[in-house]
């Protein structure tokens, strides 16, 4: 197996995720501000659980090499990405205290607990497959929007979002994520019970991503 097999298994759900109205409107500069603010606050809460998931990956590891592997991602999340997120949100009038005090929306609860539950019940591969739609999907979205004819950059308040996820740094980091995932999947036959289980995990997490975009759109109504 490889990561493309996971995407092909749930192609329609993947398209719904990577071509959602939320990201299309964001690129066209027409996204409702309240939808974006809701997304920023929920994404802060999501990232905290994302860090917990990487810590769980260390717990689930059996060798020192495996334990070291998630550490750079966990360190980057806690020391860099979260700080950048808080700094960026301050430009939208949101403080760290605001986001810490924000109730988790249903989509956020469902998604993050699904990932953590999958990791607790399964092994490292189950966990990384559940995490994969987030990282890989944002790279696909970023690259698509950077080349989409309807994307507006000049005067777009969401321009930095498009540039972040289409940028070389993020794209390169996801290439490494894909390399690690493919290494885990390499010995798994696609049509085996194990392979189909991993496909279902990826599909469910992808559907959770769709719901995450949609809860932002719903918040603007």
UniProtKB/TrEMBL annotation:
Function: Catalyzes an amino-pyrimidine hydrolysis reaction at the C5' of the pyrimidine moiety of thiamine compounds, a reaction that is part of a thiamine salvage pathway.
Stored InterPro entries: Haem_Oase-like_multi-hlx (IPR016084), Thiaminase-2/PQQC (IPR004305), Thiaminase_II (IPR027574), Thiamine_Salvage_TenA (IPR050967)
Catalytic activity: thiamine + H2O = 5-(2-hydroxyethyl)-4-methylthiazole + 4-amino-5-hydroxymethyl-2-methylpyrimidine + H(+); 4-amino-5-aminomethyl-2-methylpyrimidine + H2O = 4-amino-5-hydroxymethyl-2-methylpyrimidine + NH4(+)
Protein name, per record: Aminopyrimidine aminohydrolase
Family statement drawn from the similarity comment of this UniProt entry: Belongs to the TenA family.
Source species of the chain: Photobacterium pectinilyticum
Keywords: Hydrolase, Thiamine biosynthesis
Transmembrane residue ranges: none
Pfam families recorded: TENA_THI-4
The Thiaminase-2/PQQC domain, residue ranges: 12-217
CDD domains tied to this protein: TenA_C_ScTHI20-like (cd19367)
EC number: 3.5.99.2
Pathway: Cofactor biosynthesis; thiamine diphosphate biosynthesis
